[in-house]
Amino acid sequence: MNCIIVDDDKLSCKLLEGYVNKYASLNLIGIFNDPVSARNEIAKQKDVDLILLDVKMPEMDGFDLIGSLDHPPNIIIVSGGGEFALKAFDFNVVDFLLKPISYARFCKAIDKVVRYFAPKEISKSGDEEIFIKKGSSLVKLKLREIVFVEALENYVTLNTNTDKFTIHFTMKAIESQLPSGVFIRVHRSFIINKSMIQSIKESSLDIMVGHTLKNIPVGKSFRDSLLNDINVMAR
Fold first, then answer.
1. CATH superfamily of 2-116
2. pTM (2 decimals)?
3. Which of 185, 201, 217, 223 has CA 20 to 30 A from 95's CA?
4. Are 2-116 and 129-229 the same fold in CATH?
């Protein structure tokens, strides 16, 4: 897993470099003391899997860096300020490490990256629970409560029957987290809960959201997999 360190504290960089070199599956490809240089390198390399990222830095802070990336890689925030923890989850970071960091805590965070972004094929029920930031709180949500997911530029919205949550995530990443037995991607901008399908047309389908039908486009490249995935009885 290719990773970079972005921190203006050189002592912190040195500590993290040692930790990364100890962890067998990590490959350190760069250390940057400012986010601008890091962003330029990410734009060139395009193969950064993980950023160990400080928050308070000159010119651009860590959150600004995440927001400036079209497709952010996995992010672990490494900060001396605990007040940034809640805001960090608004950017859907994998973990938040408060300095000073022990190697044991570092390993726990990296292990979470591996688990969190591995495709979830074991459970098909959708009963897994996640926490999503809403306002100043973290709200618990069962995956099967999600009716559909919609891509909006650098964000996605998770829509339930009664609420909507906007998170900084890519469609590819969210698709890997949703159980394929419950959800299916039907368009480059839409993933739906299969149990909510009411009817399928030539280039769209209707799903039930609360007590209302919502029409969702079906992309040509997704239609065959959709029909193969559901039970179709036809003469």
1. Response regulator (3.40.50.2300)
2. 0.56
3. 185
4. no
Counting Cβ atoms within 10 Å, is residue 127 exposed (0-12), middle (13-18) or buried (19+)? exposed
Domain boundaries, the chain: 2-116, 129-229
What is the full per-residue pLDDT of the chain (235 aa) written as tens digits?
Answer: 899 999 999 999 999 999 999 998 899 999 999 999 999 888 887 688 899 999 999 888 999 999 888 778 889 999 988 888 888 878 888 899 999 999 999 999 999 887 765 544 444 567 788 888 777 778 888 898 999 999 987 789 999 999 999 887 778 878 877 888 899 999 999 999 999 999 999 999 999 999 999 999 999 999 988 988 886 654 4
